[in-house]
């Protein structure tokens, strides 16, 4: 059990979320409300039945349900409502800043215009007191050609997102499949990130860095299988956006007690804690912190380090970053 002081610190400390798929914040209640609003048929009779289907065995078993859930998003207001609901939850968890992934191909493939997706999500970010920026993610199970077409369609709206990511089915879709489109995105001046080393091997982390030139690795927990890679990540202080509840739900680790978050910290890595797909994995930011700290021998100094890491790894101007880091330090100094 956590002591009261540590629990309260985890809840109230200022933090940034750097790994959240906005489509993964769609709660079953909102899925049903949007299905009704838009006249979309669902394969589940009730919220309870849908929630009962959230028993995943691996990443693909989750992605199949996650893409089906997103099928209720059709109008700009749908994207707005989903994003506004996430931001309200983030604010309640004392998230000061978040960098939000969205998967345009999931929507454009269903005939939803790119502008509908980006405008709805972006407008909700502008209306929130939480600082929020967007990262457009390519689906890696699709072709690089499809990613190029997606980039082309999104470029007229380029002032509304700051970065490019890579997600979806990892194994068999290595980073190098997207070498050319990431090179183009780098030329265009976007921040670059990629999911790597979630289910895929440590080699995918290396190629995400060396071929795609990403600045952060999403997940990256399998890096510890390669000592040289771990040493490099520590030396270069490449941030890993780790998602503990996700990792347990998708069976990367069988139990939270087996999660390697503390081992990653002890290896000197720039680890952050994030929620990934909170509506599907049993919790938002504070749930992730509390579940992790309950299962592993972590204390206040780890909490402060994780909060600091989250802002240090954010794509924010240096002055803004320092302001948040000072806020974290003042918070812990006052305990
Ligand atoms: N899309 C949404 N969540 C994801 C995850 N954890 N890994 C890969 N793709 C995703
Ligand atoms: Zn993810």
From TrEMBL:
Binding note for cofactor: Binds 1 zinc ion per subunit.
CDD domains: ADA
One Gene Ontology CC term in the entry: cytosol
Record Pfam families: A_deaminase
Binding site for substrate: 277
EC number: 3.5.4.2
Catalytic residues identified in the record: 198
UniProt keyword Zinc present: yes
InterPro entries listed in its UniProt record: A_deaminase_dom, ADE, Ado/ade_deaminase, Metal_Hydrolase
UniProt keyword Plastid, yes or no: no
The reaction(s) this protein catalyses: adenine + H2O + H(+) = hypoxanthine + NH4(+)
Coiled-coil regions listed: none
Cited HAMAP family: Adenine_deaminase
Biological role: Catalyzes the hydrolytic deamination of adenine to hypoxanthine. Plays an important role in the purine salvage pathway and in nitrogen catabolism.
NCBIfam families (alphabetical): aden_deam, PRK09358.1-6
Family: Belongs to the metallo-dependent hydrolases superfamily. Adenosine and AMP deaminases family. Adenine deaminase type 2 subfamily.
Protein name: Adenine deaminase
């Amino acid at each position: 059990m956590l002591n009261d002081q540590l629990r309260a610190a985890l809840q109230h400390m200022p933090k940034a979320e750097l790994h959240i798929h906005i489509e993964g914040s769609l709660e079953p209640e909102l899925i049903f409300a949007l299905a009704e609003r838009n006249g979309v048929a669902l394969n589940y009779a009730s919220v309870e039945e849908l929630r009962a289907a959230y028993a995943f065995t691996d990443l693909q078993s989750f992605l199949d349900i996650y893409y089906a859930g997103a099928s209720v998003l059709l109008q700009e207001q749908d994207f707005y409502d989903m994003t506004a609901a996430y931001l309200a939850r983030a604010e309640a968890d004392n998230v000061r800043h978040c960098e939000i992934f969205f998967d345009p191909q999931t929507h454009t493939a269903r005939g939803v215009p790119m502008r509908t997706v980006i405008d709805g999500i972006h407008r909700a970010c502008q209306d929130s007191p939480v600082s929020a920026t967007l990262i457009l993610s390519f689906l890696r199970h699709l072709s690089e050609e499809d990613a190029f077409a997606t980039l082309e369609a999104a470029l007229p709206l380029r002032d509304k997102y700051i970065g490019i990511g890579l997600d979806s089915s990892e194994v068999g879709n290595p980073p190098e499949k997207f070498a050319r489109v990431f090179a183009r995105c780098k030329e265009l001046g976007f921040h670059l990130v990629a999911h790597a080393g979630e289910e895929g091997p440590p080699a995918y982390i290396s190629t995400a860095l060396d071929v795609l030139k990403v600045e952060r690795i999403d997940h990256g927990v399998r890096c510890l299988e390669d000592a040289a890679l771990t040493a490099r990540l520590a030396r270069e202080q490449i941030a890993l956006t780790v998602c503990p509840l996700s990792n347990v739900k998708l069976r990367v680790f069988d139990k939270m007690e087996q999660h390697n978050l503390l081992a990653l910290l002890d290896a000197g890595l720039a680890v952050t804690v994030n929620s990934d797909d909170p509506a599907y994995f049993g919790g938002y930011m504070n749930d992730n912190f509390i579940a992790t700290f309950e299962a592993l021998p972590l204390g206040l100094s780890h909490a402060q380090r994780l909060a600091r890491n989250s802002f240090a790894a954010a794509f924010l101007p240096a002055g803004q970053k320092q302001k948040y880091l000072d806020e974290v330090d003042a918070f812990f100094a006052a305990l």
